């Protein structure tokens, strides 16, 4: 059994690694989540042995029994994070410890074996080291997907006694097709993402599966993302299908819905709050209703709206559509506060500007 203080990874030799020319061709237009690197990192947990068998291996399918627990009871969690190419060919990670800690909290909520923080970090570093040549230059990045699922062959309704932890990676460009332009969002009056006492604060696949129909509805209305209201009153703004949301007011205040158990505690969200306060911006974490959102747009008190998450980082919201019509926020473009925060955050992530809050982790 591996100990918490020292994790040893065995290295598997890849039988047919992607050529440098082929990687270069992939990186010209990687899209998002379509192209994957050569390797993956895995570790296994059993009730008898704990965490063991950590290895860097070439990327290949898992062999799962039809009675594998995850296929029936959805014990599965994941994380999203990025590696950036820094100065001198260095590799930078952004707050990976926070990803490790959120992964542990998600595991606890889903009754799964938590991955020790040190194992999580070492696994991410091992994959980045193995596939460093896949990290794009410029504004691209290497998206990292740590995940874990119940792997026991068993159909009883109880927590699994076996788990597989894995990290895979893919080079990515902009998340939205329109790049850094403002997006349009659909406010759902029919579907909710999470309810009190549910799994909204855990990063598990079921939450995203529950958002897909609403996201499809948003697309039908020509929108890039869906905004969910609370499940009890259908009144309070909570989050987007895969992002947190902020409102920039005329008095300079930033407002964002509070973490109430329904909302995913986004690492980008927390970073925006800390960074804004460090810049002297007042940030209020408080309930904000959709009716108030509409009123503040009409009065001009609301100047900007932006969404944030690992994939898109910061995305300005220019228009909102709902069953009652459409509202334009400001002039419908990305505003100066959004641009300022996005430039500061991405500059820190990529090592282009000073890191006043010591968020950047050097992975190699």
TrEMBL record:
Catalytic function, reaction form? L-valine + 2-oxoglutarate = 3-methyl-2-oxobutanoate + L-glutamate; L-isoleucine + 2-oxoglutarate = (S)-3-methyl-2-oxopentanoate + L-glutamate; L-leucine + 2-oxoglutarate = 4-methyl-2-oxopentanoate + L-glutamate
Q: Which UniProt keywords apply?
A: Amino-acid biosynthesis, Aminotransferase, Branched-chain amino acid biosynthesis, Pyridoxal phosphate, Transferase
Metabolic or biological pathway, per its Swiss-Prot or TrEMBL entry: Amino-acid biosynthesis; L-valine biosynthesis; L-valine from pyruvate: step 4/4; Amino-acid biosynthesis; L-isoleucine biosynthesis; L-isoleucine from 2-oxobutanoate: step 4/4; Amino-acid biosynthesis; L-leucine biosynthesis; L-leucine from 3-methyl-2-oxobutanoate: step 4/4
Name the Enzyme Commission number(s) assigned to this protein: 2.6.1.42
Q: What class of enzyme is it?
A: transferase
Q: Which SUPFAM superfamilies match?
A: D-aminoacid aminotransferase-like PLP-dependent enzymes (SSF56752)
Give the molecular function GO annotations.
transaminase activity
The Swiss-Prot or TrEMBL record lists the needed cofactor(s) as: pyridoxal 5'-phosphate
Top-rank taxon: Bacteria
Q: What does this protein do?
A: Acts on leucine, isoleucine and valine.
Q: Give the family this protein belongs to, as stated in its UniProt record.
A: Belongs to the class-IV pyridoxal-phosphate-dependent aminotransferase family.
Name it: Branched-chain-amino-acid aminotransferase
Q: Which species is this record about?
A: Actimicrobium antarcticum
Top-down, what is the taxonomic lineage of the species of origin?
Answer: Bacteria, Pseudomonadati, Pseudomonadota, Betaproteobacteria, Burkholderiales
């Amino acid at each position: 059994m591996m100990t918490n203080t020292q994790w040893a990874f065995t290295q598997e030799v890849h039988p047919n690694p992607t050529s440098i020319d082929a990687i270069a061709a992939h990186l010209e237009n990687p899209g998002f989540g379509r192209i994957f690197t050569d390797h993956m990192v895995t570790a296994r947990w059993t009730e008898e042995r704990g965490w063991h068998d950590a290895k860097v291996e070439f990327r290949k399918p898992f062999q799962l029994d039809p009675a594998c627990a995850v296929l029936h009871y959805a014990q599965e969690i994941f994380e999203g994070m990025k590696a950036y190419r820094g100065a001198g060919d260095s590799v930078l990670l952004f707050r990976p410890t926070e990803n490790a800690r959120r992964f542990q909290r998600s595991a606890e909520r889903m009754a799964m074996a938590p991955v020790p923080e040190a194992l999580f970090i070492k696994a991410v570093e091992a994959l980045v080291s193995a596939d460093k040549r896949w990290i794009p230059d410029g504004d691209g990045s290497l998206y990292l997907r740590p995940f874990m699922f119940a792997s026991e062959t068993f159909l009883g309704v109880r927590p699994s006694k076996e788990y597989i932890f894995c990290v895979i990676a893919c080079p990515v460009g902009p998340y939205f097709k329109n790049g850094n332009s403002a997006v349009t969002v659909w406010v759902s009056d029919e579907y909710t993402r999470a309810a009190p006492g549910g799994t909204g604060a855990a990063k598990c696949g079921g939450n995203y599966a529950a958002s897909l129909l609403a996201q499809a509805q948003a697309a039908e209305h020509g929108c890039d993302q869906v905004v969910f209201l609370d499940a009890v009153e259908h009144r309070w703004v909570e989050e987007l299908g895969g992002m947190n949301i902020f409102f920039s007011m005329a008095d300079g205040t930033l407002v964002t819905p509070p973490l109430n158990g329904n909302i995913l505690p986004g690492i980008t969200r927390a970073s925006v709050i800390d960074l804004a306060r460090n810049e002297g911006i007042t940030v209020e974490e408080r309930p904000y209703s959709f009716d108030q959102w509409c009123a503040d747009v009409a009065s001009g008190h609301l100047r900007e709206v932006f969404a944030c998450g690992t994939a898109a980082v910061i995305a300005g919201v220019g228009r909102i559509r709902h069953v009652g019509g459409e509202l334009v926020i400001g002039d419908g473009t990305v505003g100066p506060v959004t641009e300022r925060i996005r430039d500061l955050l991405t500059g820190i992530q990529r090592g282009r500007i000073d890191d006043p809050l010591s968020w950047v982790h050097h992975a190699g």
